[in-house]
Amino acid sequence: MAEEAISAELRPGWRRPDGTHVAALELRLAPGWKTYWRAPGDAGIPPVFDWSGSRNARTLSIAWPVPHVFRQSGMRSVGYSDRVVLPLMISPGAPGDVELSAEMQLGVCKDICLPATLRISGTLPGAGARPDPVIAAALASRPFSASEAGVRGVTCRVAQDGHALRLTAEIEMPTLGRDEETVIEARNPEVWVAEPDTRRAGGTLTAETRLEHVDGRPFALDRSGLRITVIADGQAVDIHGCTG
């Protein structure tokens, strides 16, 4: 049933002069269904991608477009509905074609949430392909960087709370839009981050949250590894790291 709610198509893209190959996964969802961003929120299922079957792909990263925030039954999730194009930035190991093979484990939700597994493969040509305007539009919809958004500084205060930590992040930045939301990610994937309480006072946006190791044990927090995304009105700002 889950696979009927979502389908994937590989857009082969083009090769840049610097050697980077730009491709994309185009995900289409049945009416009323949604899938999730890299940090899906407490009500979401994190996506997992396996590229190990690919050939001549030395490195690969996803350039995530701005996600949407969904509220349902008092819980927040972060993701996409209808259709989303996920640009892929690939560094080939050698000149020539890239044989891309992906297995995607995604969560899809409507009235219920279900896991879906999709597989896709194809050849990404090493030469001769023109830029794809669909992928170019998706790249243009990525979050702003901190400098582009006018972020002047980010300060993080940390306090012990049993085995967990309380984090208060103060972000000096212009207002992005109405109903600003924040998503905070730790570099350590074994650290769970609760939905932040976000509020604004003048030029400062404050986000407070709780971080806890999935095994319930004490842990050290690297402030430079924190990633804070501010989302509002179809825009987002991607902020890396903060000071103490």
From TrEMBL:
<feature type="domain" description="Thiol:disulfide interchange protein DsbD N-terminal">
    <location>
        <begin position="17"/>
        <end position="119"/>
    </location>
</feature>
<dbReference type="InterPro" id="IPR028250">
    <property type="entry name" value="DsbDN"/>
</dbReference>
<dbReference type="Pfam" id="PF11412">
    <property type="entry name" value="DsbD_N"/>
</dbReference>
<protein>
    <recommendedName>
        <fullName>Thiol:disulfide interchange protein DsbD N-terminal domain-containing protein</fullName>
    </recommendedName>
</protein>
